[in-house]
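Subject: two folds for Thursday's group meeting

Dear M.,

Sorry for the delay on this. The cluster queue was jammed most of the week, so I only got both jobs back this morning. I'm pasting them in the order they finished. Each block is the input sequence followed by the predicted structure tokens. Could you check whether the formatting survives your parser before we put anything on slides? The first protein is the one we discussed after the seminar.
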Amino acid sequence: MEGYGQTVFYRARMPKLLLVTDADWVANEVQAALGIGDWEIELLPDPALAAEKVTTGFYHAVVVDMQVAAMGGMAVIRALRQATTDRHRPRLVLLLDRVADRFIAKRSGADAAVIKPINAAGLRRALEGVPAVVGRGEEE
């Protein structure tokens, strides 16, 4: 118990993000875009483990690189949607390689997509709930 008259401050827990990528430069861009201390970021280089991680842990969002390992971002997003219920599903964001890949994000069931190179404001909007494809001056 705290002493009488002391003010106790409780820090709200940072939102937790699972980043599924095997490319160091993508991980560095995401970390730089979100800033230190705003998000707790957990890196997962093996996309085959993503569904298990999400079903056994708690994440506010999952960001998946389109070109992750042999599985690919679209397959990871689909696996995450199948493994979770709407009620317990984190926000799913797909990192696209080009504007022409927008249809892949829609077909996969991603909640939002960001086109690489990563725009910090665009990634933050995608994580906050803006259902858009963001990047390279293209928005829907």
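Second protein, same layout:
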Amino acid sequence: MVVKGANGLDYLRLDSATNEITKVGTIVFKKNLGIIGADEWYYSDLQFIDASLSPDGTLLATHFDDAKEKGIQIWGVPKGQIMIRLNPTERKSSGSPFGFSPDGKTFAASQIIEQKKFEEKRVVVLWDTATWKTKHVLFADQPDQWHLSYGITEDRKNALTEDNGRYSLLNPNSETALTLFLLGRLDQWVQCRALHTQPRSETGWNRTLFQNLRNSASNVADAQLPLRTPLRGFLAEQLGFPLEALGDAVLMFEFEARNRGFDGGTGFDTLSFLNIKQKWSLFDAAVIVPGVKRFVFFESKLGADIGRRTTHFKYVTQVMRNLESAFFLCHHPASVYQGWDFKYVMICPRKEYEYRLAYYACLFNDVALHLNLFRDILTTEYAALVSEERLDRFYDEFRQLVPERVAVRHWDQFWPLLRQDGFDLARYERAVQAELGADAALANHAFRNRLQLAGIEEAIANAAT
């Protein structure tokens, strides 16, 4: 415990077995003396505002406020040496609560960051006390506009949260809800606080953000936020880049490539071998990594199959539309993203895939065959609408490159990442209960049902015990 003594702050240890209190040391506020001993600590030109002693009495955390900056510093006990300073900020930032976990392995502190000018956001940062590396960032408040941070429209947000339709969090079959939860949670929802510029405004996509991405300019507002998230680790594995290269990645949901914010105003009329004038590709999620010029596009399925038909083009499947778009984004000379590369990841239940119970399982098990068939479809069924120039110039490259850019992953492969990141199903359901009240039982039932459809038996078993 910490008590104020006659000469400063006395640091005391309470023995829970004997109730004996032992004085560990004292910080005395004097000038120009420095640290001079193990039992009495002196430090000049600092004012200590608050303090916290670790459970084993070996670490002491205090606020500091010197002429240039404020923050938290960790002392070793009883030597009194400063081990590390955490969150040093400009003096305009105020002190904040902090403390050690009961086992002493984690240190938590509330921190105010400035996302944009005149707009402050509060987070809780967790550090590993063995290495003093950041473990997690928890958001102290969830903004009403969180959906804009991920490119989600107001209508779609309402469909997720306010009704019981196809996309609703209350719908037990909603693959949209599971995709949003899984990828967002694995990325620790950092974009709610981490971006200078949001992907979407209330009036549409934000051209400034996409311009920054095309110019490889980072949109991360605060370098201290933990961008080494489980999702970024997964992406690093998929792309073959070190994790540090993905710190500027931006995640978006339900991403339509043919939008004027993303395409730089060019219109992207060349995202298909067909001459199209309609919406063509819609990815369940997309990650844009400007530092390495990569896209990672996600398609996710639960109980449903991929769309086998397209309006006006009944033999063109959902997957082929998306593969065309991803390819031409990176290879057509008219694209502002020419020279980039992509990965297309299908997330689906393991058994449906392995037992070939869905058409997507047949397609992704022999992508090369379906690419050959797709050329036949284009030249036989839609000869009048095919761009012969694009077909002759690009189809062989498209057919050779795409199979190497496709990956299939199963929902149960992501569950261990969630568990390693500290996700607890029972705690999550209690939080839902506190937030939704009367709708909580329905929401939790829907969530468990989605896990069951996804083939995550471990989660269901753990929840039942």
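Two things I noticed about the second structure. The CA atoms of residues 196 and 219 lie 5 Å apart. Residues 146-414 form one domain.

Cheers,
T.
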